[in-house]
Amino acid sequence: MGKAILLLEDGRCFTGKPLGAEGETVGEVCFNTGMTGYQEILTDPSYCRQIVTMTAPHIGNYGVNPNDIESNKIQVAGFVVKESTKIPSNWQSTKSIDSYLKEQDIIGIQDVDTRAITRHIRDQGAMNAIISTIDSDLESLKKRLAKAPSMCGLDLAKE
């Protein structure tokens, strides 16, 4: 398994392992403190263009199933977890969280301190971030992140 980087707009950097698709994604970093409901969160249109950080330490325990979706596709720009479950355990599960993210080309990062990320964005305020599984050069990531539009004033209802 390779390396993944989460770089926040203010320069704070977290290194972990890839989750989901390989590549790069940019969005406003936010957090969710729910212990369950990750599939609903991923498919909730209110999280469009956001990189969602889950504070619960284990995500993916009960897998993914077609009954627990909020829309016809994953809406988040990226997904951040402490640890993902590789083999889910639920009779309704049809796939793992990793497989689900890969199928829909969503980039994520795992094995990072999600509570530290949450405290940081809570204290510092809303900001953009970039997740990359293909580039570990912080200067080039900073340049791409600087070009990302702010969420402020975007008309996401059209998407």
UniProtKB/TrEMBL annotation:
Its EC number is 6.3.5.5. Pathway: Amino-acid biosynthesis; L-arginine biosynthesis; carbamoyl phosphate from bicarbonate: step 1/1; Pyrimidine metabolism; UMP biosynthesis via de novo pathway; (S)-dihydroorotate from bicarbonate: step 1/3. Residues 2-132 form the Carbamoyl-phosphate synthase small subunit N-terminal domain. It catalyses: L-glutamine + H2O = L-glutamate + NH4(+). One of its GO terms (biological process) is pyrimidine nucleotide biosynthetic process. GO terms for molecular function: ATP binding; carbamoyl-phosphate synthase (glutamine-hydrolyzing) activity. InterPro entries: CarbamoylP_synth_ssu_N, CarbP_synth_ssu_N_sf. Pfam families: CPSase_sm_chain (PF00988). Keywords: ATP-binding, Glutamine amidotransferase, Ligase, Nucleotide-binding, Pyrimidine biosynthesis. This is carbamoyl-phosphate synthase (glutamine-hydrolyzing). It comes from marine metagenome. The lineage of its organism: unclassified sequences, metagenomes, ecological metagenomes.
